Amino acid sequence: MTRLLLVRHGETVDNVNQIMQGQTQGELTQKGVLQAEELAQQMRDEQIDVFVSSDLKRSIDTCRIIAQSHGLPVVQTPLLRERDWGGFTGRFIPDLKDETWPDDIESITDLRARAKAFLDFISEQYPGKTVLAVGHGIINKAIQAVHLGKEMREIPRMTNAEVREVKLL
Asked: Which residues are catalytic?
């Protein structure tokens, strides 16, 4: 069995300012760094074989902080990137409430397909290992939904630096 510890990155400047980050790099706030450091402290005695991160800066930075105490490198993959919000990227979230969604937003079907590809990647590359993977709120939700055979709305929102365990057979 492969054990996947799914983590959402620490708090970012755009989280605080309610900006739709999507696939922008993002920058951790001081609180986000502290969240990652606290999680690293909690996970320091945990047996983790591999650290994987989205290739976006906010996730890489979070993952590196956690991986540091284990002395392991961070593997990056675009499969763990946040949902592509297209024309909504960089916009103030409260302003989007009544707007028509642009056609360039990544579809739920495509997002779920990417989540499945990520789960397949982990199962194939790291069978029987414990993998800590730092991603983003929506892609992490999609990964859990695909794994559990549920709709995304059935998966509770992850907070910054939260960990959820997924067991892959």
From this structure: 9, 82
